[in-house]
Every structure is written in structure tokens, then in C-alpha cells.
Specification:
homodimer, about 270 residues, alpha/beta, 2 domains, 6-stranded mixed β-sheet, 4-stranded antiparallel β-sheet, 12 strands
């Protein structure tokens, strides 16, 4: 089975380059390791119109899962749930279970700090979900995640704070991806070639992929001519991990052979996390 | 004047989380510093259909500039120009000036290394531009950039290799942004608040923004309750740099005052690059 995923990341900070979208990268890497298939990542600003437009466009492409990160907090520019409601054409409603979660969190905070916290409208906003949505417990923060079904797509809204996003993802999204993927396995390895330029590698890669049609090979130039260094990424998804490993290793051996015949140097690259 | 920008980044490596989209972050930061306005960043895979769909969707929103990064090289999965041609409904054509650039690059490589390089179809692909497109010299690599006008949008395709992308951006895109922006100036500063939680800050931020409507303030929770640390980003765009600085500094002073009254701690944050 296939599990296609789209990611929408909400936050002006992404559009002014204050941060790179490392949330999307983290999610994409986890999804790939689970043999899911991220199709698109979209970064937009804290704008109701942008959020609802991006959600509508993503839903039209019918991904298995649509993940939205950011914009769930209590500040006025946290508009993800409102944007989601607008896209789905449903009202926002105070959801009792979400309210309980938010209230419990502040009660704990009060107990820990002795500081009185009222459930102001800003705070209650975190418990107002698009109709039909369910809260997902946030083990690392206040704003609950939100899950919602729409036709064949499961929409999950996650907080933008990395540790909160990751905690909900691991507990809640991972099982969902595993179930959708069924019994698929992803395997990848990287090689590093020197002494050949990308345009010399291109036909060697093509030849290797023709003989190993289940394997995908991509080249990334890392240092320019005249002393080129090119990273090669070889990957596949298969119904057994053994087949995935065999396919990738066989393709790697063939490509290494071809590069050596071409008077280049090539070696395995140990992946850094 | 306003200069709205959309960025499309092409590359499967983004969708498996092998890398974060630091190219888009770099561009977004440069555009913000030039007082341009990045509206959307879209990451897609090396797929003809995805590229042409993303280009069509972006053009429909009529940005001033549409930047596309990646997919300009000689390998079979470099499909940006083909996708662009499909989106614009024009054929790909060998462009004489682009061919001259590619040829000159390989001749230099031959002279430097003594290695014979033929202009194979893979290499010539880098000189086949969508009809109406013009090549932009790549001072740091082989594949030229491409510029193309479509209605009110200027489309610029840039290589994915960061140093090549950055070199073309600085030489070619920066003057274009400056011209479109006219005489606008961007200024921003960051503060760091402790001892208050995000939902307590929300009304203080709102009050500050109401009194300083030209200023935009965004909060980023960095550490969770019960010892919250929140980064605050204050920014504006103005017709004079002096006004921009004054607006941001006044808003910062007001917000600092409000936080202190609220028994929180707040201080300026020195930005790290």
C-alpha cells in the first residue's frame, strides 16, 4: 500500500528566513524511514487566507495524510485551526475534551509555580476545533494537536515547537503511517565520487537504474569542477527489507564498477545524522 | 512598491528529509533584508508533472518574481526546464548563448584537467531553454540560470548547488528585487522573555501592535513551562530606514515595559547568523 503525505508549515519566520524548515525535514525523514512518501512541502505565512488556500489545494491532491505544523498556540497570529475550519467550510467549536486538556495543563502550571492562570479567550482558543475535529494530547506543551478526516485524507495539525511536534508525531502519526504503508521497507545508502563530473556520471547512473528499475539514484554535486565531488544517494522501497537491501547493494556495486571503469574514484559514505 | 516572491525548490532529497531547504531559507533571508516579501515556499520532487503543476499554481497567484531552485544539471532527473516549458506551454530549444556558456565551461575544464569532454546530449540539455527564456551566466558552475517573463511575473531558475545559486542570486536577482521594491527598508530586532508564558504574552503583544500598527511582532516559544523562554521578533518595512528603526525600537520599549509590569523578565537578543 502507499502512504502519500503532504506537509504545510505555517509561520512568517519561515518566509523571512529566520529559520530553515527543520520541522518539515524531520517529518520527511521519519516518513521516508517508515516507507511513506512525502509529495510536497509548503511553507506559508500566518495568514488565514494563505492557510485555507493551502489546505484546500492539498486536499484536492488527495494525500493519505495532510500534516500541518505551527499556528496552534494562544497568540493572535496563531490561525491554523481557523484557517482549517475555513478550508473545510465548518465552524470552530469549543471541544470539551480539548478544553479539559488545556485546563489540566494550566492547573499543573499553577500547582508548579503558584502562579494563577485564568482561562482567557486567548487560552481557550487552543480548545476551539473545526467541527468534526478531535484533540490529540500534547505530552510536551499546552496546545493539543488536532485530527480530522476529510474524504480519503486524514488531516493532523501539530504544534510548531519542535519537541511538541515530535512528541505528538511519534505517539500519534507514526502508527497511522505504519498502518497506511502496510508492509513496505525503505533502504538507502550514499556513495561519494571524485574525479568525474556530473555530466560524466549521468549516463552511468541511467545505465544502473535501467538494470535496477526498482532502485532510485540521485546525484548531488558537493564541490565544483575542476576537482568535482559528487554525492550519490541510492534508495528503494520494497515489501521485504532483505529485498530492499539486496536491490540497493547490487545497484551500488554496479555503479561503483562503472565509475571505476571511467577512471573516477568512488567510495561508500557513512551517513551523518 | 511591493515585491512579492514565491520560491519553488525542486529535489527528491528535500522530500525524504536528507537535507533541510536551506537554499529557500537563504533566499528568504536575503529577500527580507531587501524589503521584498516571500509569500510561499514549495518543495517538490524531481517530477515533470509536479514541477509544471507547481509553476502553474504559482503563476496564477501573480508574484513579482518566481524563483525556482534545483534541477538544472545534466542528469536525467534534472527536469526543471522541461517542467517550466510544459507549464508555459512552449517548446524547449537549444539557445545559442546558453550553448556558448556550457561549451566555454567544458573547454576551461579540459584545459585545467587535460581531460577530453564531449558535448553529449546530457550536457547540451543544460542549454535547452523554454522558448522565450534567456540564460544567466553561472560564475560558479556549468548550468546557466534561466530568466523568463510571463505576464507580470519574472521567472528565474537557479541551480540547486548553494554556491552557484547564491552567486547568480547576488549578481542577477538582487538588482531585480531592489528595483521592484523601490525605496523600502526592512528592520527587525529580537527580544527574549522569561517568567511569562505565551498565553500571558499574547494580550501584551496585541496591545503593542495596536499602538504600533506598522510593526509586526511574533512570539516563538523556545522552552516549555514551567520555566518558559519565549523569543519575540519585532519587524517592520518602511520608506526610510530611520522610520523603520524608530518604529521597531518604540514598539520594543513598550513591550519590554508591559512584560516587566507583568513580572516577567525580558532582554534584547543578539542575533546569531
Amino acid at each position: 500500500m502507499a502512504c502519500t503525505v503532504e506537509i504545510i508549515s505555517v509561520g512568517n519566520e519561515l518566509l523571512i528566513g529566520k529559520i530553515a524548515n527543520t520541522n518539515a525535514q524531520w517529518i520527511a525523514r521519519r516518513i521516508a524511514s517508515l516507507s511513506g512518501n512525502v509529495r510536497r512541502i509548503v511553507d506559508i505565512g500566518d495568514s488565514l487566507q494563505e492557510i485555507s488556500a493551502a489546505v484546500r489545494e492539498a486536499l484536492a491532491r488527495k494525500p493519505t495524510i495532510l500534516l500541518i505544523t505551527g499556528g496552534l498556540g494562544p497568540t493572535f497570529d496563531d490561525m491554523t485551526l481557523e484557517g482549517l475550519a475555513e478550508a473545510l467550510n465548518v465552524p470552530l467549536k469549543l471541544e470539551p475534551e480539548a478544553e479539559r486538556m488545556v485546563r489540566a495543563r494550566y492547573e499543573r502550571y499553577e500547582a508548579e509555580t503558584g502562579r494563577k492562570i485564568e482561562l482567557t479567550p486567548e487560552r481557550l482558543k487552543m480548545a476551539k476545533l473545526p467541527e468534526g475535529g478531535h484533540p490529540v494530547k500534547n505530552p510536551a506543551g499546552t496546545a493539543p494537536g488536532v485530527v480530522l478526516e476529510r474524504e480519503s485524507t486524514t488531516i493532523v495539525a501539530l504544534p510548531g515547537v519542535p519537541r511538541e511536534m515530535q512528541a505528538i508525531f511519534e505517539e500519534f502519526v507514526v502508527p497511522m503511517v505504519k498502518k497506511a504503508v502496510g508492509d513496505l521497507h525503505f533502504y538507502a545508502k550514499s556513495l561519494e565520487a571524485t574525479g568525474v563530473i556530473e555530466s560524466e556520471l549521468a549516463p552511468l547512473i541511467e545505465k544502473t537504474m535501467r538494470e535496477h528499475p526498482r532502485v532510485y539514484i540521485k546525484s548531488h554535486p558537493k564541490a565544483p569542477e575542476p576537482r568535482p565531488l559528487i554525492e550519490l544517494h541510492i534508495s528503494t522501497t520494497s515489501e521485504s527489507m532483505e529485498t530492499a537491501v539486496d536491490d540497493v547493494e547490487e545497484a551500488a556495486r554496479m555503479l561503483i564498477q562503472l565509475v571505476l571503469e571511467h577512471e573516477g574514484n568512488i567510495q561508500e559514505l557513512v551517513e551523518q545524522e
